[in-house]
Amino acid sequence: MTAAELPTLRLGGKRLPVVLPSLRDARLHTAATILSVHAIGVTALGFRVSVIHILAAILTAGLIDVVISLRQTGQLVWPASGMLTGSGVALILRLVEARAHDYWQWQGWHLYALVAGASVLTKHVLRWRGSHLFNPSNVGLVAVFLLLGSDVVEPLDFWWAPLGPWMIVAYVVILGGGIAITRRLSLLGMAATFWVVLAVGLGVLAGSGHCMIATWSPDPVCDQRFWWALVTSPEILIFQFFMITDPKTSPRGQMARGVYAAVMAVLATLLIAPQETEFGAKVGLLSSLVVLTPFRELFDKWLPESLSLRIPAPRSSTAFAQGIGIGATLAAVAVGIVVAGVPARRPAAASVTVSEVTVAIDIPSLPQVTVGSDIHTSGLQARAYVVCGGLPEKKKRQTGAPGGASGVHRVAVRGDGPVTAF
C-alpha cells in the first residue's frame, strides 16, 4: 500500500497517514500469545502482577514508539513492536512486594513504565549498521535486575504452579503459539536447538550435584529435580520462543542460527552454574542473550547460509582429527560447566550446627496461625498444615484474603531454616 492509499487522520490542521496493523504480522500473533499467558497467569496461576502494571508497560512503550515513528516517517504507525516490548517486560518483571490476585494494584506501576520505556528506547538509540544492537525487553530487564537487585525486583519464577488444568492450558498456549510462530518465520530449528543443548548442559550441571534455593520450594532444588524444573519451565519456553528468536536480533542464515542458539545455550548454562539462588539463575539465563546478541553478525559472516555437512571417509586422517577435536571441545565444555558450578554445589549441606537453646514460650500470647492464599497457590498447603500441626497448641487454620491481606498470619517455610509465623 502506497502512502497515498493509506487512511489519514487530521491533527491540528494537518493530515497524517495512518499505518494500521496487518493480521498477517507475526508480531500480532506473538502479542496474542503473550497476552493470553498474562490472562491465565494473573487470574488462575497467581502471577504477582496487576492489570495496572501490564497496561503501564504496554502503553508507555507503545506511546514512545508512536512518537519516534511519527518524527522519523511523518506517519502514525501502529506500535506493534513497542507494545510487544512492553508486554514482554510486564510478563517477566516482578516486584518483590507485589501481591497475587490484586488485579488493580497501583504500587510500582511507574517502575513497569520506566523499564518498558527505557527498553523500547534502546532499539532507537543503541544501533549498529541500521539495526538495534540488543533485544529491547531483554536488555531492559537484565539492567533493572542488576541495578535494583533481588530485594526490590525479581524475574518470573521458573516454576509457576502444580500441574493442573490451568497449567496445562498455559503450556498449550506457549507451545502452540511458539511453535506456530517460529515455524512460520523459519526459526523453529533455532528454538529447538537452544532447548536441546540447554537440556544437555543442565544435565551435566545437575549431575555434578548442583543446588538452587527457590522461593517456591521449602527445600533446596537439587540434582534431577533441578534439571526437571528448568527444562520444563514455562519461563525458559517463553525465552526460547519469544526472545532469542526475535528476527531483528537473530542471525539470518539457518546454519548461523543453529550454531548461535547452541552457543547461547552453553553460555546460559555457564552463567546459571555458579548461582546459588533462583534469582541469580534467572538473571544468568536472560544475560546470555544480552552478551551474545551484539556478536550475531559474526555467525553470519563465518558460517554458510544453509546447513551442509561434509562427512569425510571413516578411515581418513581428517575424520580422525575432526573426531578428536569435537570430543575435546565437548569435554572442555562439560568440565567448564562442572567447574563453574562449584560455588553452588549442595549449599544445604553447609548448614551450621548450633547448640541447643531452651526457649520458654507463652502459648496464650502466640498469634493466630493461618495459611494464606499464596501458600495455596504455590503448592505448599500440605507442608504448611504439617508445620501448623506441630505447634505447641493447635491453632485455627483458615484461608486468608488474596495476597495475604491485613490480619492474616502466614507460615513461612524456607529450606531447613526456622519456621516463622507472621
How would you sum up this structure, described in words?
This protein is mainly alpha-helical. It has 3 domains: 1-148, no CATH class; 157-305 and 324-350, no CATH class; 363-421, no CATH class. 53% of the residues lie in helices and 8% in strands. It has 15 helices and 11 strands. It has helices at 26-44, 51-73, 80-92, 109-125, 136-148, 165-184, 188-207, 223-231, 234-242, 254-272, 278-292, 296-302, 317-340, 373-377, 381-389; strands at residues 8-11, 14-19, 76-77, 93-95, 127-128, 131-132, 153-155, 211-212, 221-222, 411-413, 419-421. It has a 3-stranded mixed beta sheet with strand order 1-2-3. Strands 4-7 form a two-stranded antiparallel ribbon. Strands 5-6 form a two-stranded antiparallel sheet. A hairpin with an 8-residue loop joins strand 8 and strand 9 (221-222). The longest helix has 24 residues, at 317-340. It is globular, with a radius of gyration of 25 Å. The relative contact order is 0.09. The model is unreliable at 348-354 and 390-422 (pLDDT under 50).
